[in-house]
Structures are given as C-alpha cells and as structure tokens.
Design a protein that fits this description.
InterPro entries: PrsW (IPR026898)
Oligomer: single chain
Keywords: Hydrolase, Membrane, Metalloprotease, Protease, Transmembrane, Transmembrane helix
Distance between the termini: 38 Å
Organism: Radiobacillus deserti
Radius of gyration: 21 Å
Number of strands: 0
Number of helices: 7
GO molecular function, one term: metallopeptidase activity
Mean pLDDT: 90
Structural class: mainly alpha
Helix content: over 70%
Low-confidence stretches: none
Protein name: PrsW family intramembrane metalloprotease
Strand content: under 5%
Amino acid sequence: MLIGAAVGAGFVAFESAGYAFNIGMMYGDQAMISNIFTRGWMAVGTHIAWSSIAGAALFPVKGQEPLKKEHLTNERFIKLRVVAIILHAVWDMPLYFLHEFLFIGLIVVAWMFIFTFIHAGLKQISRLNQKVETEEAIVPDYLSS
C-alpha cells in the first residue's frame, strides 16, 4: 500500500506541475497558486489513494513471489483495481451539480478502503506477534539462553 501511495504521489506531483504551469501561463500567478492549493489537498483522495488501493490489492496476491504477469490477472487484484478505476472515472465525470460534495464523497470512499486495508494489516501483525509469543513459550528454558 505504501509503495502504491508513493507511486501515486509522484504521479500527482508531476501531473499537478503540468496543470499549474498551464494555468499560470493562461491566467497568471494567483490562479496557478489557487490550482496548486486545490490539487494539493485533493491529492490525498485522488492518485495517492487510488494507487494505494491498487498497491494494497497487488501485494497479497503477489506474496513472497517475484512479480509475475499472472498476479495482474488475479481475480482478487482485478476487483480492487476496478474500484480504483471506478473512483477515478467518477472523479473525472462532469457532474458539476455535485462538484465539492462529489469530491469529498469520493475521497471518503477511497479512504474507507484504505482504512480497511490498514485494519487488515494490523490484524495480520497481531496474529504474527501472537504466533511468535506462542512459539517462544514452547521453547524450553535451557534452549533460550
């Protein structure tokens, strides 16, 4: 998930720089700064979140194996990747009557997925810690010194 977020952050920075440049050239500095600010706060719910979802979808499928083409066609990966694609598609739709509400709603939906992945990851860490503690309890004292 973190790798996906990093990839998304890199992309949104590059994309935002292009938009800022174009807006600055057409409308001046104030419009450019406004665009940078708006895209900055929205970035946490756009490419960063969408790429996090894709990254979180890929790693359980991939496991410890090197990345293979089959991982990208895995049903579990595809389902979650489609979520990110749908979120992006709805974001880009010209639903002007919903404007800010749409953006905020889509950010909330994306972060619901992210928090679900975080929760699953924390549960996995907890299970691994319990397993280690159980294994340590089984080791005889004379072997642990």
